[in-house]
Description:
- This protein is α+β, with helices and mostly antiparallel strands.
- It folds into two domains: 2-86 and 310-455, no CATH class; 103-307, no CATH class.
- It has helices at residues 19-42, 45-49, 58-73, 103-117, 132-144, 151-156, 163-168, 171-176, 180-186, 214-227, 260-264, 266-288, 291-306, 309-319, 334-341, 344-348, 383-388, 430-442, and strands spanning 2-3, 80-84, 188-189, 198-199, 230-234, 237-241, 326-332, 349-352, 364-370, 378-381, 403-409, 415-421, 451-455.
- The strands form four sheets. Strands 1-2-7-9-8 form a five-stranded mixed β-sheet.
- Helix 1 runs antiparallel to helix 3 (58-73) and helix 10 runs antiparallel to helix 12.
- The longest helix is centred in the N-terminal third of the chain and has 24 residues, at 19-42.
- The protein is globular.
Amino acid sequence: KTMASMYRRPRGGGNPLPPSYRNKALLIIAAIAVYTAFLYHSGGAGQYLGTDTAAPDPNLSASALSGMAAMANSNRKLQVSTWNVAAINNNPFEYWITYDENPAYETIMSDIEAFLENPGAQDVPVSQVFTEEMFAELEKRMDGVGWDNVRSYWDNDFKNRKIIQGFMKDPLLGSKRLASMPDRITNTINVLGSDLPVCRPTVINMYDGDLSTLPLWWSAWEKFMFDTPLTIQSKDGSFTEPPYKMLQPIKKAKYPDITEEEEKVSLPLQTMCGAIFDAILVHMMNTVSSPDVWQSLKKTMVENLNRQKVPHTLDILENVYGSSDIITLQEVSGSLIEQARNRPLGQRFWIVAPGSMDAVRDQNSVILLAKETFPAGPSAEITSLVESSFEPGVTVPVAKGDILAITATDRDGIPFVVASFHGDTNGLATKPVLSAIMKGMASDSSLVTHKLVFGL
């Protein structure tokens, strides 16, 4: 998920260009500026961006040209890195790692693979794992919070599906996000007043409770989802609510495979599918291994891999990408932002978070500007300008915190628009978001001359 070293820039002054090259560079820059202005007024870029392209501010244009000339003269190049850090992914079994210290790991992973690839007689109906009694209790809970009833989906479809071929391997279930969306929201929740997050009772996170039987799992899962109020820090303060209230509707505009009927009941439907998903995972682990073996192994892996994820991520940013002028990050947790500001990274970079952060999903786009390159830091956030520039009447599948767009001026006086964008899985939002950024820049005389850096 990393993409770096797009442009390398020496930190020293570098060797100055000979006068003949300097003159050529200035001539080229001037020609480009004139030609760009011609395109804006004769249908090139202006035609793409619309007819309301603002005239460039003369002072900003002069500053930008002067800055570009200074940059060329010093042989300075911009180094940009972008990384989706996937802050909420805390599954110790997500990747098949090398773990020579414990041979049981290789055995378990091989047996899981065999279970999924060739389940045979173990591919039992869902109702043998997530039982009728469990669904009845879940139904009562969901009715109690005022959600629409989804018993017809259970009786006519889900309870009869085979756990592997009909559920875990169903591509349509994946594209509808009916199991992965509730997992994304409730897998790992950072809470106010605790250094450790609260985790949903499941195999695929840092949950350390007993999952040795399905009844034990179900009791803990039901209590977590409906009876455990959690206090979340937001930009404007804090709020307290149980995890079921954090779930968000699944929109057809963003996930086209979901039907209109499923969209209307997406809250209870995803809750049911999330419960089935977790039940199958617990059943599978207790089938391929004994609980004392796999749970002990999981605890060791969690301690070494997951609990140190944020510090390890910050180490990589500092030691590998610390020479970057601009770093754009996506899916960043509030915890990572705060820890970054208190480390050497915060001394070297302006760490810019969205003015309106998503505290529930806890995944936000963030921008780091090197203080040496941008001594004045960010000038303004223009995310609202981008969002207001979307095509009228078109639903763009972006969520709160997905877009962060700012302006900043570098040490040579070159103005930039820097955007960090978390695109959706299907890439549906990338084009409209980029078009909105370009449209917003074209509509403002103070932004027309800015150079765009777009990280995703």
